[in-house]
Amino acid sequence: MVKIGNIDLGAFPLLLAPMEDVSDPPFRQVCKENGADMMYTEFISSEGLIRNAVKSTQKLDIFEYERPIGVQLFGSDVDTMAECTRIATRVNPDLIDINYGCPVKKVACKGAGAALLQDIPLMVKMTESVVKATHLPVTVKTRLGWDEATKNIEEVAERLQDVGIQALTVHGRTRAQLYKGEADWRLIAKIKENPRIKIPIFGNGDIDSPEKALEYRNRYGIDGIMIGRASIGYPWIFNEIKHFFETGEYLPSPSMEQRVAAARRHLEFSIQWKGEKLGILEMRRHYSNYFRGLPHFKEYRMKMVQTMIKEELFETLDEILKEFSGVLLESKAKKVEYAGAD
Fold first, then answer.
1. Which of 81, 88, 171, 324 has the fewest CB atoms in 10 Å of its CB?
2. Do the domains spanning 3-247 and 256-324 agree at the CATH topology level?
3. Fold of 256-324
4. Contact (Cβ atoms closer than 8 angstroms) between residue 26 and residue 266
């Protein structure tokens, strides 16, 4: 069994990656209902949390059905990270996760996220300060290194374990790669093979089908898999992978009824949590993903992104179900273009 502190995640957990502007409570809900074992908030700015910025504090909203759930924090200053850890601890998540992996310029150029891969002593000092600032388990998500010449993740894993982290997730790319090329899991496997490493090691990057999940589990020996882009608009991937592990067979493709029901539930909670205006606006990025591959979907998508009236949105979903009932789309999840921070 895989455990983070006292959190029992089962034999081989599937984790939902924290993705900026994606993995909010409505999205997490549909993923939890479809088999995600562990989830995280969107990443939260330490500076924003200390200033009590609305966007940052709202990301602290967690719900009992989501557990176990971690709050993910990022920042560039040791003392600020410790203080925001104390603030985040008050909302009683199951763990605190530190983001040392976000590659986007607005984060990395401010000395946060993946930028810490250029200053391992500072990363270690910051991690230690976070560990000391909370009674909760602390975990880390990072990358192989800053670029091809500095793949220092093996050293990073040992040093972060030594200052008290209780699990490590590694995205199999460098910061310089962003999300391009193929993720390289060989160094992730080396961390797991290191006899000094006692904490769970999770792999992340390019898992977009049940057979690839099984292949990577067997080949690289990791303790679990974190899934990001492949879950966008396709929350069924978690249960599909679990079923494939157990039986070697694919689950049937999600029916049009299931797709419409998931989109409807996502929209309902988005409105409930964010309010009608913002909930409708921020749901727009998801429609195409739920119905990816559906012929002639563009006209329905245009109707949905051009209205701010929730009743019209639900009516359009009913039209989609009526028009395409019985249509089956490809079962396996597809990669989605994404420039966030998974």
1. 324
2. no
3. 1.10.1200
4. yes
What pLDDT digit, counting tens, does each position of 273-283 carry?
Answer: 999 999 999 99
Confidence class of residue 295 from pLDDT cuts 50, 70 and 90?
Answer: confident
Displacement of CA 190 from its chain's centroid (Å): 23
| Helix, strand, coil percentages for the chain (3-state, nearest 5) | 45, 10, 40
Q: Tokens standing for 51? A: 């200033």
Please state, for a pLDDT cut of 70, what percent of the chain lies above it: 96
CA distance to 49, 53, 142, 331, per residue, from 87 (Å): 8, 13, 23, 42
What gap in Å lies between CA 311 and CA 189, rounded to an integer? Answer: 50
Distance CA 167, CA 325 (A): 44
Q: What are the start-end ranges of the E strands in the chain?
A: 3-4, 7-8, 14-16, 39-40, 44-45, 69-74, 95-100, 138-143, 168-171, 201-204, 224-227
Task: Describe the crossing of helices 210-220 and 237-247 by its angle, rounded to 10 degrees.
Answer: 60
In the chain, the largest separation of any two C-alpha atoms, in whole Å, equals 59
Task: Determine the Cα–Cα distance for residues 15 and 25; give it in Å rounded to an integer.
Answer: 15
Tell me which residue of 166, 178, 175, 188 sits closest to 68, measured CA to CA. 166
Domain coordinates in residue numbering, the chain: 3-247, 256-324
Residue numbers annotated as active site: 102
Residue of 131, 108, 193, 203 lying closest to 158 (CA atoms): 193
In b/e form, how buried is each residue of 40-62, taking b as 16+ CB within 10 angstroms?
bbbbbbbbbbbeeeeebeebeeb
Domain 3-247 has CATH 1.10.287.110: no
**Distance separating alpha carbons of residues 289 and 103, to the nearest angstrom:** 23
- CB within 8 Å of 45: residues ≥ 6 apart: 53, 56, 74, 75
